[in-house]
Write a structure and sequence with these properties.
- The complex is a heterodimer.
- Chain A contains 15 helices and no strands.
- By secondary structure, chain A is mainly α.
- In chain A, α2 packs across α12.
- The longest helix of chain A is centred in the N-terminal third of the chain and has 38 residues.
- Chain B is mostly helical.
- Chain B folds into 2 domains: 79 residues, NADH-ubiquinone/plastoquinone oxidoreductase chain 6, subunit NuoJ (Four Helix Bundle (Hemerythrin (Met), subunit A)); 42 residues, no CATH class.
- In chain B, α1 runs antiparallel to α2 and α2 packs antiparallel against α3.
- The radius of gyration of chain B is 21 Å and the shape is globular.
- Chain B starts with a helix and ends with a helix.
- Classes of the chains: A mainly alpha, B mainly alpha.
- At the A-B interface, α2, α4, α5, α6 and α7 of A face α2 and α3 of B.
């Protein structure tokens, strides 16, 4: 596998030879920040295009076709439209909080995004508590949503924000439990290390039964965590107009929209990293020739291939199932998913203690 | 001036300004938001010290948990236009005096104290070490406080359900 840290080391030594170390580190931080923002925006655009095409395919339509070949430039046109729209300010609203809320949501999303390991040696934030930090960062988004609902001075927004907050806080529990199941199997929380341990088989296969249960729980809870799929009633159009972002227009609405799509990607990418091996190619112990062939495919392609496969699964669920009621959502979480998750964690502990995994 | 020092000064100024704003603003939700920023700044200092576990806990528990709880309860109890009353002069003076007294005591303790020479290992602390210390039963290990706190939390949950449930 190509180790991307060779490139970063080379850039670092080049900068050091020109300037003092502090300045070099500062410039590297700025450059990486810009790269993350660009990647974030590109993934958002890709995700929006994919959502429209997948949705169209499930409804036997074609989706956007007019602008560019197969409608590929449509999303760029939409982004441009969003950028030049007027940002409407609301009377009797708390302007400071109203303008701050989308940025808190996007901050949480970018912090979680920068933890993802894209390739060998290509992880930006790689703490030894990596997966824990990722969960902590993504839990901040709830504050932004609650602030947005409250400061819009609108009853629909407030109810939407409350529903969204209750739902996200509840489902964070299941996401945490299923991640914890895998942490028990790996005995590490560092994301790069988690990927390295999957060199002789992905955790979905190594952890067999409990890992599969955890994967399914993670997909359900992750879908609810980003307010999508059958769990999208915080923004149920027929009852609540558009939920917490009813009063937002222009780029402020755009930020919520982009954060929602990239959060979906982050959920999928974490699922790909901890269950499906991240950038690690498909290795089958014993078949050395096959493994060598798989190693020729770069890690970035593996990572994005797996992530977009999980995204596609989630979109399939979204466009297939009808929406749940709020009490059904909370019942599903507290009466079914959490108890199953706890028992599953116990099962995984037993399997690890008696070494029944592969 | 090293990069470390500059980062620390920026974080410290951010924390100080946000803490003053949190107590001087008259709208309660803004106060909660400034408190969130103060907690972010504190987490930033933990990350600067390379103690990423405590930093992540700070983000998860305080910023993502406690502040959300505050915001939720503010959302449920107060309405949009609510503003705190202006403080009376007497209260203002009492507050200023107690703040100054607190500052003097803190400064006195900090300047008088003989700090032990730091024997601090560079690099991140291993999560395994933290886990063993938290759950171990030997000297300087914390399984008893851990269990006591979990019983306290259980009691809080049971009490909360008892108060909230319909009879």
């Amino acid at each position: 596998m190509f180790d991307f840290s060779i490139v970063t080391q080379w850039v670092h030594s080049l900068l050091i030879s020109w300037m003092p170390e502090g300045l070099a580190v500062f410039i590297e931080c700025l450059a990486i920040g810009v790269c993350i923002m660009l990647a974030y925006a590109m993934i958002a655009i890709l995700m929006i295009f994919m959502e429209r095409k997948v949705c169209a395919a499930f409804q036997c339509r074609l989706g956007p076709m007019r602008v560019g070949p197969q409608g590929t430039i449509q999303v760029f046109a939409d982004v441009f439209k969003m950028l030049i729209k007027e940002i409407i300010t609301i009377r009797h609203a708390d302007k400071f909080l109203y303008n701050l809320a989308p940025y808190i949501v996007i901050l949480a999303s970018i912090m979680a995004f920068s933890c993802l390991p894209f390739n060998k040696g290509m992880e930006v934030l790689d703490f030894n508590v990596g997966i824990f930090f990722l969960m902590a960062a993504s839990s901040i988004g709830v504050v932004g949503i609650l602030l947005a609902g409250w400061s819009s001075n609108n009853k629909y927004s407030l109810i939407g924000a409350m529903r969204s907050g209750a739902q996200m806080i509840s489902y964070e529990l299941s996401v945490g439990l299923s991640i914890l199941t895998i942490v028990v199997l790996t005995d590490t929380m560092q994301l790069s290390e988690i990927v390295e341990r999957q060199a002789d088989g992905w955790f979905l296969f190594k952890g067999h039964i409990p890992a599969c249960i955890a994967f399914i729980i993670y997909l359900i809870a992750g879908n609810a965590e980003v307010n999508r799929g059958p769990f999208d009633l915080p923004e149920a159009e027929s009852e609540l107009t558009a939920g917490y972002h009813t009063e937002y227009s222009g780029m402020h609405f755009g930020l919520f929209y982009v954060a929602e799509f990239v959060n979906l990607f982050i959920i999928a990418a974490v699922a790909a990293t901890i269950f499906l091996g991240g950038w690690m190619p498909l290795h089958i112990p014993g078949l050395d020739g096959f493994n060598a062939v798989m190693d020729f495919i770069p890690g970035v392609i593996w990572f994005f291939g797996k992530s977009f496969f999980v995204v596609w699964l989630l979109m399939w669920i979204k466009w297939t199932f009808p929406r749940l009621r709020i009490d059904q959502i909370l019942t599903l979480e507290w009466k079914y998913l959490v108890p199953i998750g706890l028992c599953n964690l116990l099962l995984m502990v037993i399997i690890v203690v008696f070494k029944l995994h592969f | 001036m090293t990069l470390q020092l500059i980062v620390f000064i920026v974080l410290a100024l951010f924390i100080a300004v946000c803490s003053v704003l949190a107590v001087t603003t008259s709208r309660i939700l803004r106060a909660a938001t400034y408190l969130l920023f103060v907690l972010f700044g504190t987490a930033g200092i933990y990350f600067q010290l390379n103690y990423s576990f405590l930093g992540a806990v700070q983000l998860l528990i305080y910023a993502g948990g406690i502040t959300v709880l505050y915001v939720f309860s503010i959302l449920l109890t107060s309405s949009q236009g609510d503003k705190a009353e202006k403080l009376k002069n007497g209260k203002m003076i009492a507050g200023a005096v107690s703040t100054l007294a607190g500052l003097v005591i803190c400064l006195f303790v900090m300047l008088k104290n003989q700090f032990l020479p730091s024997h601090f290992v560079h690099g991140e602390l291993d999560v395994r070490t933290i886990g063993h210390t938290l759950m171990g039963m030997e000297k300087y290990q914390y399984v008893l406080p851990f269990e006591v706190i979990s019983i306290l939390l259980l009691a809080c949950i049971v009490g909360g359900i008892l108060i909230a449930r319909k009879r």
